[in-house]
Batch of 3 targets.
Target 1
Amino acid sequence: MFQIKNVTLTHKKDLRTILDGFSLVLNDGDRAVMIGEEGNGKSTLMKWIYDPELVEDYIEYSGEKVIIGERLGYLPQELPEQEKGKTICEYFMEASGFLDKTPKEMSKLANDFHVETEFYYREQTMQTLSGGEIVKAQMMRILIDDPTILLLDEPSNDIDIETLELMEKLINSWDHAVLFISHDETLIENTANRVIHFEQIRRKTMCRHTVANIPYRQYVEERLNNFNKQEQMAITDRKEKEIREAKYRRLLQKVEHAQGAVSRQDPSVGKNLKDKMHTVKAMGKRFERLDEQMTEMPEQEEAIFFKLGDKDSSIPSGKWVLEYESSELKTSDGCRVLAKDLELKIRGSEKIAIVGTNGCGKTTLLSKIAEDLIARPDLKAQYMPQNYEVLLDLNETPVDYLDSSGEKEERTRIRTYLGALKYTADEMDHPIRELSGGQKAKVLLLKLSMSGANVLILDEPTRNFSPLSGPVIRKMLKEFPGTVISVSHDRKYLDEVCDKIYRLTETGLHPVED
């Protein structure tokens, strides 16, 4: 049994309520996705469900959860700090069911996740794994303990397309309940049969949630249709109100004028006009009641507004942006060769993506390309790494991080930009470490925008953006007048943005045919 009753979550720092009176029952076969803009409390709620102690430092909460006879398996959005220094072997040994599994069961699990059986016993530390390998290890350890309910926070982050398809199969075939957060629209469309939508409206002064027991695409279409229908009804009601008010004003002025002109020597006319005034005022009361019944103008949380690049960011079609050649690609510690005979040439404002299995070296290759291009005096290249903390100072506020001059005008401009990205005034002054993954990504994208870059090197650029913001980000990158070199497993991003896709293997980079 899994039930949540009347849960309210409030930030301790700015006293902003991010969830109010939320209730949910999960049954076997439910595949419920939580969606909403970055910072709307999805991850906070999931942490609270799993263990309230995970949020008690920054959240006040009330409500009740009833979990009887269930075993929860929780995948956090990021590997906890205390796990990073453990060896892979130590990490798996902490699973309570690790020693109870047969070699055959362990081998099958490893094979399902496209890793070798010896992966369980490596002395390599968890923090040295690629992002996708970390997600695989976390999911494998969860499944070793035979949970009944899966709580998955961004299970699609950083994993390769083959593992994404495995994740879809796992969610769809799960006998019990799955509650997950994802920004991967394809994954959501292919799996979710319930949608839980969290919104912050009226400049984030009011929270709202919707629970719909329908697939995601149907929810999006019905939501849009209902919004448009309510909007048209509200517009019609307001036009009718204007007509009523004009009619009422005309009648009221006519009777008032007649009353002012009537002679005191004609009491019968005066009484008649008094009766007419009574009728007119009764009409006004009736109109007021009709006004109270008017259809409300619908409210919804809008997707972010963002523009990247301008005419100065364009690159001539004949200019060689990259002519990269390397006989071999090694791991960052130099101990292992990942690929040989690499060659990548990019000219003009091409949009390039690199795909490949987890651990094949995509991030390593992209960082080397970034190092070369950032040093080029004829280009203005900017790099967005997979691990945001490489560039972000977590103790700074977003405004301080983006401010390069300290001038009042620039800080005002930065606050305006952050507002367009749905930051509240309080969030602009929060330390970056308190922001969600998507909010951190927005800070980096804004940094790219303000830099005037004409070459963007992006490692998983869409990984932390909501399904509402995802289309905006893809459109922004597609229309960027400069060059984009990226690593991504986002299937919609690959389809909609990229001109060319290359697969990284042990034998080099190979074009992916349509």
Target 2
Amino acid sequence: MKKKALSVILAIVMVFSATAVPASAIDFEATAEPVTKVLAKIVGTVFETLVGTVNLFLKENDKFVAEDEYVYDNFYEGTAEFIDEAKKGAKWSLGQSSMSLVPENWEEYDLFCGGFISEQNFFTNDVREILDDMKVRVIALNDGSGRGTAVFATIDSIGVSNGDIRHIRGLLNDFAKKNNLNSINLFATHTHSGVDTQGLWTDIFRKWPKNIFSAFTGLIETEQGTDPEYMEFFYGRVCKAITEAVDSMETGTMTFARKDIGARYFSNKNRPSCDSLDTELKRFVFTPDDSSVTPTIILNMSAHPDVVGLATEDDPTKGHGISGDYIYYIGETINNAGYNFMFFNGSIAGIYIGRISAKADRRVDIAANYGREIGKMTLGLTMSEEEILDDDYLMSLNLTAEQTEGTNYTPWYEGWKPAKETKVEPILNINIDKVEIQVTNPVIKAAGKLGVVNYLIKKSGRDYYITTEIGYMEMGKDIKIAFVPGEICTDLIYGGNALTAEGSVSNKDYDGKTLCEIFGDDVIIFGLANDALGYIVPENDYCTALAFGHYQELLSLGKKEATTMFEAYEKLVG
């Protein structure tokens, strides 16, 4: 009877964790008032005690490895040295590739969309239709210094675990040696309507009961959440795209521009204590020396593409369609203008779509309108309002008055000021480092014992650790980029309310440095880099209270995660 009760409790906990309900949907105030803070701490303590008790009864599986047997393989550290000046006569080289990650026979696979599990679609988000596409986009970059080529691949999915990323690197090891690759880096767009490549949003009614039974008894093996046949297809396509990008490299020039497009395009709906926003578009343009070769636009922005994947009360049948969400439509707009498209997500924990520009019957149409508008901004980033009005392509994409009726819509280009575009010298410094983070969150411990996600967990006594990767990159002389292996709360980058005693649940100030203080105010963030660790929240505002604006802690490694990671960033800079 005791084990049955514990099974029920664990199932409820895991369903809640995987559902990842936005805080705006939970009817509690953020932890600002003293009474609310106290209540949040009590709820968090009770919850951790409850799940911690469940963990005592769960058995470890083959993903838990003793400290003296633990091996972290297929790691690429980047350039062996950093340079301050471009090599004489050096030029940028860039190769590009883009491929669909949707099999032609997709109906024969056991596929689920990653990102949401809710009562609106009866706690199952099996794939039933293809709305647009799920892609892998790759660029290979070389600065002509002789220090090798860096590869960057971005996946249209909720996230890719470090174990799967290192598996892909392992498949490419021979190719990497032959082509002098100094790093192979994988990112995710975080679309909530791509195939779940992590395994958390799987067939919960079949796999989770089986894995819960395994975790309690050890009598059967756990079953990973992802479809193994699809993952083999996925590995193969990503590897093929990477090799094609490396094989297609061409020399050319690189430019960079960045522009703040304003807060109306973004919203912070899921962590009220975190009040900073990243509202910039950052754009690189690679122009090949050979005019017959297609140029490439590389876009970085903070995005949380959760528009298409959510089933709603008025349309509960949705949440079953594969889509790249608005990232797909940014790319479509840029592709149709004659460019290849590459995307890197930024600081995404509190960033959501903040502008619904037109009435739409389907959520995918909302994503399309938003994505096409961001795509037009990206193309017109360095243009004046007059130049935009004279551009036939940009003006042909405008919404009609009928579409925008009643929405208080104003054209994106009204009052537009051009961003400054600068030439990027061929300097590419990149350093990737390993960082070991202790797992203290009992929910993540339980998830590890359930074995649904591909992580290797190191045991040291009674403590558990996950090894992940952080990174720092320089392009040209003054463009600095930090690689973050998860969804980082924006206050940890720029500062903000959550780092203050008044705004945090602990009533204490955050005593560490922000990423801007470590790398400089102009640092660019590449999120979900080489891992998908879930949310990275400040230690002073950490509380597993489920509600009160703190549900992100359910999908965090623990209270010390950000502190440990930021100490590693400081060492990396040194």
Target 3
Amino acid sequence: MHRRRLLLALIAGFFSGVGCACLQLLLWPQVTPSLKRAFLATLTWGSWSAVWLGLSGFVAWELTTLLSGLFGWRPRWPRLWVAMAVAGVFVAGVAFFNQQATREILQPAHRQALGVVAILGVVWAAAWAATRRRRSSLITAGLMALWGAGVWWPWWGAQQAGDERQLAQPLQELSWDLQGKPRRALVVVWEGADVPWLLPLMDGGMMPFLQSLWSRGGWGHLRTVQPFSRAASLATWATGCSPIRHGVVGRRAYRLPFLADVPVSLLLKGPWPSPHQLPWRLWQRAAPPPPKEPTLWEALEGLGLHSAVVGWPFPWRGVAEAVPWEQAPPLDPSWQAAIEEAVSKGTPKALPTLQAFALTAEVGLGAAVMIREKVPQVLVVHLDLPARLRPLWAGDDPGGVLALAAQFLDGQLADLWALFGDADTHLLVVSPYGMAPPRPWDRLLANVGLTGKWPVSPKDSPDGFFFLLGPGVAAGSRVRGARAADVMPTLMYLLELPVARGLSGRVLLAAVDENWAASVPLRLVAGYPWPGP
């Protein structure tokens, strides 16, 4: 009897894995459909799911039977049609959840295919329920064969969204002409900062330099990428394109040589830990691929402007090499003493806090050296101090570490502006995502002691922010409804550079002065030229 139950659980787990294999490959548009790949995915995911999902279902039912026997109730082991119906409903639920969760990062054709698989799962479960009284082996075999063929049909049917990017055009063919001296821009990224965090600090006098500029520039919230992905958020503002176009959808990538020649990133969400959905350890971690669209600094270099990037967290093209933690220089003695005093009441948090400040100081020093030695026309400085410290000290900051972080960032911004800025220089301070408290369910778990933390996090994709200052910016303007992809085209327009038609973002005219908009035309080009190697 136990062997029969185990066999039934393994069969149901196998067919659940076959459906999940199709769902996972639908999240990877770069995997070209073929009969060989469908067979390999069926074999690997099906066998993997049979082991972990089938065995876990078998153990759970055996424990339920054992415990219920203490109360005099003996539940009957489900028959084959029940197990198969549960497998179909399970796959349908996973498909529907991932269809909703990938609204902004997956091609429409593949999202529609996820919906088709969800419908097939429900229909398949209903078919098993309708034939439960007919113990025909022919019907059983037919339903199993239909499931194997049916779940893979949407993968073939999902038309690959063609690469709509325009080919990079030679510089001389672009219809634009920069008159006079090219404008300059200082772009500072405060990853993890947002307006609800900054405004109280400015009102409290912790950020005097930013506060002195605030009324002279334009600002607004930035709607970030959903679901949250750090790499996707940064790539979206840096390219001005949505994740569907630039192709960066996750912070990690995985190689599955038997399925794809390129690394894949987006993983299927379900009741399992990540990356448990990848079968049999037949994968290796890989660096996430760079965007398929030119970044801000690549577009500038292609247009003939000299740019530099300091502190970028990913090894993308045109980015200076990051400095390892152990090589970060010591902080200024006064700051070192102030930070050590602030973290004295949170000893376990002291080391990561000091490291975060040291790395931020290193990036600022590298930016200053870059300004003096290479004199770029556009300098991008990436700092992630808020993203590191806000989750660490949220709700438990007796020493005022977050206030010190705000002062540190503000002073660093003032120093960089003194070195780089002038009356014709644009300043852009941007954060592609913010931080927010957990949702009510997570708060309940924290209150009853099931989770030990109640930190802020970017988990629910809260809004980031941007602040613009310089020629053409409407003083005191507040922009509503801005997205992370709108930052790049707006900056390109203010620099009097052409805006590519293929960008997903738009120019935020609400932040542009009316006289500037009337005198400076918006020039469009098919695409930006890629810089040389």
